[in-house]
Design goal:
The protein has helices at residues 19-53, 55-67, 69-75. It is mostly helical. The longest helix is centred in the middle third of the chain and has 35 residues, at 19-53. It is elongated and about 65 Å long. It starts with 18 loop residues before the first helix and ends with a helix.
């Protein structure tokens, strides 16, 4: 028995063989962009929480930096 030959277009969906890789390329690009944006916002959120919203952490960090002799010489 021979199998029927497959055509390059699927008559039921109207899609061609080349459309699946294009969809995957678009999906990968979209997911990469979304992950990058979420990553940037996550880094900024952690920074904001530690430095801007947590006064004790900011005060401790500033005091430690200002007590360093190399930093005092650099800003003098």
């Amino acid at each position: 028995m021979s199998e029927p030959s497959q055509s390059s277009a699927d008559p039921a969906s109207g899609a061609t063989e080349g459309s699946a890789p294009r969809r995957h390329r678009f999906l990968v690009g979209t997911l990469f962009t979304l992950a990058t944006v979420i990553g940037v916002f996550a880094v900024l959120a952690v920074w904001a929480n530690r430095q801007v919203l947590n006064t004790d952490n900011w005060t401790t960090t500033s005091s430690n930096l200002l007590a360093d002799k190399a930093i005092q010489n650099a800003i003098a």
